């Protein structure tokens, strides 16, 4: 297991649609362990493989004491929505209210190829949607309305980490009081 560098907004891998996992092998199990360790070290509520530069459909999560992962997810979302603060480890220190489905049923596989179904609401649903978006090359600021997105882009341009394209050397917890980083 190894903590991996987290790719920051502007890295092209974050905008690519990740490839489905076809081999449930030792390499995949190592990837899941690396994702988990990196997510916990950050700390974050979730982390998708593209965020560490691997274009595969895999993510990990740690929400409300539940630690897990999902490979090749497909989602069924509720019609009911929720608004809440959302951040991202690939946009350190930034949080914006984002509308998401209130509930989700996520189907996919574990790292051994066994079918998995995860049902969740509120924060778990938000996290699963956020991480699945990463697998589709979507960053949460893409889901903001025009005015919020404009504010987000201004904050990104002004962020210390965007000045030279690298993350700050100090550890930043982007989910301080009201948002969670995924």
From TrEMBL:
SUPFAM superfamilies xref list: Peptide deformylase (SSF56420)
Has the keyword Iron been applied to this entry?
yes
The catalysed reaction is: N-terminal N-formyl-L-methionyl-[peptide] + H2O = N-terminal L-methionyl-[peptide] + formate
Identify this protein by name.
Peptide deformylase
Q: How is the cofactor bound?
A: Binds 1 Fe(2+) ion.
The molecular function GO annotations come to: peptide deformylase activity
Q: What does this protein do?
A: Removes the formyl group from the N-terminal Met of newly synthesized proteins. Requires at least a dipeptide for an efficient rate of reaction. N-terminal L-methionine is a prerequisite for activity but the enzyme has broad specificity at other positions.
**Which sites bind Fe cation?**
88, 130, 134
The cross-references to Gene3D superfamilies, in alphabetical order and at most eight, read: Peptide deformylase
> Upper lineage ranks?
Bacteria, Bacillati, Actinomycetota, Actinomycetes, Kitasatosporales
């Amino acid at each position: 297991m190894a903590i991996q560098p987290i790719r920051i907004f502007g890295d092209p891998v974050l905008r690519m649609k990740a490839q489905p996992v076809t081999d449930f092998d030792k390499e995949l199990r190592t990837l899941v362990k690396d994702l988990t360790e990196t997510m916990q070290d950050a700390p974050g509520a979730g982390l998708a493989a593209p965020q560490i530069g691997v274009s595969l459909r895999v993510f990990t999560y740690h929400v409300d004491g539940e630690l897990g992962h999902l490979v090749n997810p497909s989602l069924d979302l509720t019609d009911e929505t929720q608004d809440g603060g959302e951040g991202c480890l690939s946009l350190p220190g930034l949080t914006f209210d984002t509308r998401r489905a209130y509930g989700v049923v996520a189907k996919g596989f574990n790292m051994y190829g066994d079918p998995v179904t995860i049902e969740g609401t509120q924060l778990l649903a938000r996290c699963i949607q956020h991480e699945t978006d990463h697998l589709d090359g979507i960053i949460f600021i893409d889901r903001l309305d025009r005015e919020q997105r404009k504010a987000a882009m201004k904050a990104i341009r002004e962020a210390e980490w965007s000045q030279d394209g690298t993350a700050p050397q100090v550890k930043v917890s982007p989910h301080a009081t009201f948002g969670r980083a995924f």
